[in-house]
């Protein structure tokens, strides 16, 4: 993670230095401003990740400071914390109305409260990734292999076999997602709308309460980018926070990254409790799969972290499971047969395959592979 920048705006030098020292101890890059005007200039020039400002400034009012930041596109959702000696509830209210996300009063509790906020915003460490729900990341080397269908159907099977568990699916396929179409979600919330919110708004409670629950599928969905044009606006640094929030709020988080290995998605594979790779039986997909597996090995995603699923096997064309294993030099964990038009039917009616065709062998395979994935992910975690 790149070092995060925090700007402290306070006309009182001693108070500013005190907070700066405390935050420097936590290894943040600290900037300081002595007035509101200076604070605005530094914010727009240096682009800090968080601004902590005393609303009682010598030149402009804190409310004006916040309102100016909120009125500018670059800083509409910048996390903004008021740190003030003014306990008056009216002042708290007017600061919040002007755009401060949090209001902390200068007291013995101020430093622990600030620490709590910065940890919530930036505190992503390996140790923290090990906490919270199990994360499984679904991917493939080539498009159209059935990754999104597998991701949604696996999530549904997990929630069916563990009705008390909270299961979420996040669609991070760029530039356009598809799980919303598979499950029939037509709402407006998606990875873009959520990542545009301030990190202070998207806390654990937000993900528990505001993520739509999908009927029949029994999971909560963070839908993907609705169109390629908009996906360019996705703030990569926010994706990480969103994933952390989801992990804290759900027992299982299944993330679809499709075939897009990028600087956003590679860290997700590296920190997943299990990576699930979809492979199809044609020679060109197998060859790309071999290349991607080799690449991932160099990035610390080793073979034993990856659960492999061969899709559309036993069709007339394509390689057998044995042939695919020989070409890749690995063991394939599960194989889903070619389902003719049935999979497409289930998808186009927005129904889980297992509900639409409960007695089909593929339903049994979905169920079994979901169970194995959980077992492997748990084992890796411990
Ligand atoms: N085993 C199968 N038998 C028949 N059809 C299948 C099978 N697996 C997937 N399909 C069909 O293939 C199509 C593509 O599936 P899906 O969207 O899940 O693939 P994907 O890998 O996520 O694609 P994309 O690259 O577009 O993200 C869907 O219409 C699905 O119903
Ligand atoms: Mg897909």
- The CATH class of the largest domain turns out to be Alpha Beta
Cα distance, first to last residue? 24 Å
Protein structure class: alpha/beta
Count of distinct strands: 13
Q: Are any ligands bound, and if so which? A: adenosine-5'-triphosphate, magnesium ion
CATH fold name of the largest domain:
Rossmann fold
Describe the 3D structure:
This protein has 382 residues and is α/β, with parallel strands linked by helices. The protein has two domains: 5-122, Response regulator (Rossmann fold); 127-381, P-loop containing nucleotide triphosphate hydrolases (Rossmann fold), CATH 3.40.50. The protein has 18 helices and 13 strands. The chain has helices at residues 13-25, 36-46, 62-71, 89-98, 110-122, 126-129, 147-161, 179-183, 191-195, 204-210, 228-231, 236-249, 266-271, 283-298, 321-328, 342-348, 353-356, 361-381, and strands at residues 5-9, 29-33, 50-53, 80-84, 102-105, 134-140, 167-171, 213-214, 219-222, 252-258, 274-280, 306-313, 334-337. The strands form two sheets. The protein has an eight-stranded mixed beta sheet, with helices on both faces. It has a five-stranded parallel beta sheet with strand order 2-1-3-4-5, with helices on both faces. Strand 12, helix 15 and strand 13 form a beta-alpha-beta unit. The protein is elongated and about 80 Å long. The model has no long low-confidence stretch (mean pLDDT 92). The chain binds adenosine-5'-triphosphate and magnesium ion. Magnesium ion binds at residues 147-148, 173, 178, 258.
């Amino acid at each position: 993670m790149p070092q995060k920048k925090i700007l402290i705006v306070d006309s009182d030098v001693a108070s500013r230095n005190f907070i700066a020292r405390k935050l420097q101890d936590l290894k943040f890059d600290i900037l300081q401003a002595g007035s509101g005007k200076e604070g605005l200039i530094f914010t727009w020039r240096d682009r800090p990740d968080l601004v902590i400002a005393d609303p009682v400034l010598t030149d402009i009012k804190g409310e004006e400071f916040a309102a100016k930041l909120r009125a500018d596109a670059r800083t509409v959702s910048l996390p903004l914390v008021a740190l003030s000696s003014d306990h008056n509830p009216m002042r708290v209210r007017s600061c919040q109305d002007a755009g401060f996300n949090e209001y902390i009063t200068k007291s013995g509790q101020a430093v622990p409260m600030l620490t709590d906020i910065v940890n919530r915003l930036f505190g992503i460490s390996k140790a923290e990734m090990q906490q919270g729900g199990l994360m499984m990341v679904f991917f493939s080397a080539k498009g159209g292999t059935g990754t999104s269908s597998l991701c949604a159907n696996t999530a549904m099977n997990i929630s069916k076999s563990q009705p008390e568990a909270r299961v979420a699916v996040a669609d991070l396929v760029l530039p356009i997602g598809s799980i919303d179409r598979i499950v029939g979600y037509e709402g407006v919330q998606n990875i873009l709308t959520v990542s545009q919110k301030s990190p202070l708004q998207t806390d654990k409670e937000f993900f528990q309460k505001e993520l739509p629950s999908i009927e029949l599928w029994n999971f909560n969905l963070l839908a993907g980018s609705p169109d390629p044009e908009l996906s360019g606006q996705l703030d990569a640094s926010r994706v990480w926070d969103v994933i952390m929030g989801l992990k804290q709020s759900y027992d299982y988080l299944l993330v679809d990254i499709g075939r897009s290995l990028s600087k956003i998605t590679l860290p997700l594979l590296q920190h997943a409790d299990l990576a699930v790779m979809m492979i199809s039986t044609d020679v060109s997909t197998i060859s790309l799969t071999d290349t991607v597996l080799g690449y991932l090995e160099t990035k610390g995603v080793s073979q034993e972290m990856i659960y492999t699923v061969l899709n559309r096997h036993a069709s007339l064309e394509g390689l057998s499971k044995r042939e695919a294993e020989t070409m890749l030099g690995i063991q394939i964990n599960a194989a889903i047969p070619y389902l003719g038009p049935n999979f497409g039917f289930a998808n186009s009616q927005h129904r889980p395959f297992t509900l639409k065709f409960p007695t089909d062998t593929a339903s049994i395979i979905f169920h079994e592979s979901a169970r194995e994935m959980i077992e492997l992910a748990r084992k890796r975690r411990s």
